[in-house]
């Protein structure tokens, strides 16, 4: 999971859309309109909002953070929409929207959403790194929100999501190789007897390793949120 900066420009289809007055009023042709989907794809760098896997271009799913079945009035609301993979949206999150004890759930458009304390992280609103850190490839919830989000989206579930876990493992290994190389080069530099030629090699080596790390942690790289949130 990684912080998402959604465009402040609301897609035209949503600007002109009616506010649904019931769950049956929520129109797929509106919240899944091409301009909505395309803007989410760009803002999220073609990655799932929750597990950060890469989503192919032909994937057309748009997810409601607050489920449209209950929060129908937010069914066409830009702030409530995220791009997510089928597994996270349809298999795991579905209509789940757990709230912290003491929360007052909004039941109508006039109710105050700020009285709710969702236990799922909306990466477009908060930095997930404040709630979920990573020990190597393993997600660790450091707040109730982080723990619940890991549980609901099965972010550590090797049995149900082997590909997700394996992809994160592989990325972490690539990252670790670069980090270890930098440490070795640093030892060379710390030795006062190192000849100038070797100092040059070590400095160039560190530069190249940092370039690789910048590439692995780039915003558009799947699972890069794991690397920037290492414990
Ligand atoms: Zn996902």
Description of the molecule:
- This protein is 39% helix and 6% strand.
- The chain is mainly alpha-helical and 231 residues long.
- A hairpin with a 2-residue loop joins β3 and β4.
- The structure holds zinc ion (ZN).
- Zinc ion (ZN) is lined by residues 48, 50-51, 53, 84-85, 87-88.
Features:
231 residues; mainly alpha; two-stranded antiparallel sheet; 8 helices; 4 strands; binds zinc ion
What would you say about this model in short?
The chain has about 230 residues and is mostly helical. Helix content is about 40%, strand content about 5%.
Strand ordering within the main sheet: 1-2
Ions, cofactors and other ligands present here are: zinc ion
Number of E strands: 4
Q: Helicity level, as a percent range?
A: 25-40%
Given the C-alpha coordinates, what overall shape results?
elongated
Portion of residues in beta strands equals 5-15%
User: Rg from C-alpha positions?
Assistant: 21 Å
Give the H and E element order.
HHHEEHEEHHHH
Termini separation comes to 15 Å
Low-confidence stretches: none
Please state the average pLDDT score. Answer: 95
Tally of helical segments: 8
Report the sheet with the most strands, covering strand number, pairing sense and barrel closure.
Answer: 2 strands, antiparallel
Structural class: mainly alpha
Question: Helix and strand layout, with pairings?
Answer:
Blueprint: H1 12-15, H2 28-31, H3 34-43, E1 62-64, E2 81-83, H4 86-93, E3 132-135, E4 138-141, H5 144-152, H6 162-190, H7 196-216, H8 224-228
The structure holds zinc ion.
